[in-house]
Design brief:
By secondary structure, the protein is mainly alpha-helical. It has a single domain, classed as Globin-like (Orthogonal Bundle). The protein has 7 helices and no strands. The longest helix is centred in the last third of the chain and has 24 residues. It holds the Pfam family Globin.
């Protein structure tokens, strides 16, 4: 009883697109966060140790930014590996969503921001087809996260 709305072909092409960007998980994860912090400075407020950083260069060099960039990409990678198994997928997304909703109190709109930046980066690096094939995955991730937030009373 899969709650995933992706066909097998869509899963395969999404994985192909993701693999290209995941090869450099730390650099690309860092690039995504730096862009988010630069274009949406309010998102920095959730990360006490990033608050004082104003230049993109400084953020790029930060071990904490790099570490979190890699963490974000690893979490998405786990989800991408389980797109064809909704139970396993939800087993990853659910605790992640709960933690961000209850402990970290992160506004769920930030998930959409980060997903959109990943799609932008994919398009810049690998073209529109990569972006298009991964867009459904980001929609899937964001809608599940939003559902978890709703369950947590957001």
């Amino acid at each position: 009883s899969s709650s995933m709305s992706l066909s097998e072909a869509e899963v395969q092409s999404a994985r192909g697109a993701w693999e290209k960007i995941y090869v450099d998980a730390e650099d690309n994860g860092t690039a995504v966060l730096v862009r988010m912090f630069t274009e949406h400075p309010d998102t920095k407020s959730y990360f006490t140790h990033f608050k004082g950083m104003d230049s993109a260069e400084e953020m790029k060099q930060s071990d904490q930014v790099r570490g979190h960039g890699k963490k974000v990409f690893s979490a998405i990678n786990d989800m991408v590996q389980h797109l064809d198994n909704s139970e396993a997928f939800l087993g990853i997304v659910t605790p992640l969503g709960k933690k961000h909703a209850t402990q970290l109190k992160i506004d769920p709109k930030n998930f959409r921001i980060i997903c959109d930046i990943i799609l932008q980066l994919m398009e810049e690096k690998f073209g529109g087809d990569s972006k298009a094939s991964f867009e459904k995955v980001t929609n899937e991730i964001c809608s599940h996260l939003n559902n978890i937030y709703k369950e947590e009373g957001w």
